[in-house]
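@channel anyone free to eyeball this complex?
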Amino acid sequence: MSTATSFLGVRADFPVLSRTVDGVPLVYLDSAATSLKPRQVTDAMVHYYTQVSANIHRGKHMLSEEASDEYERTRQRVAEFVGARCESVVFTPGTTYGVNLVAAGLGLTGDDLVLVGADTHHSQQLPWRARAQVEFIPVGPDGAVDLDRYAALLRRRPAVVAITHCSNVTGAYVPVAELTALAKAAGALVVLDGAQSVPHRPVDVAALGADAMVFSAHKMLGPTGIGVLVLGPELVDRLPPFAFGGGMVDWVDTEKVVWRRAPHRFEAGTPHIAGTYGLHAAVDYLDRLGMAEVAEHDRRLGELLCAKAMQRDYLSVLGPLTGDRGGILSVAVRGCRDLSELARILSDSYGVMCRTGHHCAQPYVDAFGNGQVLRISSHVYTTEEDINAAFDALDEAFPLVSR
Amino acid sequence: MTDTYQSSFAGALEEIAEAYERVPFFKGHMDAAGLRPGNVSTPADFRRIPATSKVDYRRNFPAGVLVRGTALSDPFVFRSQSSGTTGERLLTIAHSYTLAERMTTTATVNPALSSVFSGATEQRVCRFAAPNCSDVECATPFTTPESRTLPDGTRVLPVAHDLLSTPDSMIDQAVEEIVDYRPHWLYTDPMHMAFLARNLKARGIAPPPAGGVVLTYNLVTRSARRQVADVYGTDGPVLSEVVSMSELGWMGMECPHGFVHMNTDSFYLEFLVGDRPAEPGELAEMYVTSIGDEISPHLRYRTGDLFTLLDGRCPCGHRFPRVEFHGRGTHLVLRQGEPVLTPHQLDKLVGPAEWLAAYKLRQADEERVRFRYIPSSGDPAEPSHPADLPDRLRAALGPDIAVDIEPVGYIECERSGKFLCCVSEVPR
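replying in thread with the prediction:
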């Protein structure tokens, strides 16, 4: 068995992988959009809905306490997982919401400058573009940040630098500690998008030096609808609430209100309680595999994806061919102007689920990918056989769809 | 040691006779086992009474577990809500006089501390422990000293649920209140007290005066004790470990020679391995039967706490038996389903550890443990652990368990608010 199948034993935990498409085994290679969920995660959520189902906090009955305990235990578990303090871990509906929460709370005006990576996801672009001047940090077609241009931009004293740890298009990892240190030296706050890195690598937010980090459970084997915002000491007490309602106040009378301490003042209303059960199970699952091993698996699959693409002259890789990259590959396909047709064929005729388009990084894909690319992305359940199946399918379909 | 048990066994027989007649739950409990008090005359007979656990006292509270005629509103009834280390809720009541008697009897183990108690006619006490351990809200900044004062006069100090996240303002508040309240003694979780000591030291503040510091609620680690002792110096208050349960009050205390003695006047204690009495040195669970409890007796109550009995006579001369507390059964590190390391054994292995501020070993599964510690400098970039620590941990755990050692800047508390140094999540 190839080295890329080191987690072969986990596949039985993912029921979707037992499906077939008209008799063809399903191959799931769209994990950068969302990962599959192991039974442990869905079981935890079913347990909540069937055995607990109560709302958290303030209830005196046993079910409420049980739900509250698990909700807060998940916070502890996530804090430990990313090297954060419990009070700095805010549950959000997802990465997008987390960036919006931070962007809205900084009191930015049109005079403030925010630097955004050129390859960054819309969720890390648009909240800043809506509130401040945005300059893009140049990123080449190989996914590499232009450090000289970055240093020059920092001399303009940006208020915020919005960094994406791992590109959801290219799979390239940026030297985040270096970028962060430079940004901090320039007096900027750093907001890190960890949506594609936290699921695949050990990430220590304190060591990276970011003032805020966001990620989503659904890309790390957890449920949709829940994410995490980790706030550093610079922001945890400074940011005002983003949404208002129950659960986020210590005191309300007709004259005044007093917000609760972080993280509670950022969690108005009934949260996604079942989601925290699932997130806890997902973190446990990854931890059991070992994040060092998960990272190694991701690197190996990234190398394999690149190697396979480079063996085919009809594919052009957008992103790094070597270096620090994960198991995400985006390619342009020679002679294919509409990749959606190809993606549909891969899905329906070969059972291969992958994704096409600009992947919510339209400026970057427009600049270097002709407006759309085909993306293949992996996770712990992905095997070398999956990747072979995808490329075999591409080889067969390509002559029929190219012009 | 056997003599000690025999001396309390007569009290245990009286307790079951009383409980059978006057407490509805126990009559049903013994009837279901086909037992009557008259059938029980030896310790072996006694062990045929099915053990009780938290769930019995919770499910049957109040009507089933209170002596007939008792009302919650009776004078001198002390109520306690506990979720403790286990997270299992329990509402219990006890007579204030009974609790005081247990405390006084237990304190005979440590004459110096006993004299602190007896010299404090007003009994001004400050408590610094996990918020879940108190029946008042003490974890928000909107509490007043008055709102945190318990009916018995104990002043509960403010602290966050997540100990190491307690903001400076709450630490300042706690220190100011101790100075202002001038407690005769402090009733503390050792991890909380060590945290306070570190903060006092970092701010260059002299520790608030007190006659004694009781360390309870949690395992007293050598590193926590060192930090508390350091900040107070040689002329500081009497430090003593106390074994206590919110349901039953004080049960054991550390003598001047550093040994914990269990109060076998107020309780009949069984230390069992499975169903048989433990030999000295064997890891055993403690079962408690109250003696002379006129409101809510406990019979063969499974504590989940593990001890080893120490053989021989203590140099202090006290007649109560000596034990070592090893932690809760649910916190043992397991290998192939068998315990390989108790929190107490881990603590002995780590020692006073001047190189760290706090530590936690967590076992997520049977293949791996993670030992995190906060270096004494507070800076995780400056690893400070001894070079042989990995080998010593591996030697203790065996070859099948991988050990990750990691300096960190912060370690979270358990959901209960307790800072535990050793936790295992392996199902058992």
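from a first look: Residues 124 and 181 of chain B are 8 Å apart (CA to CA).
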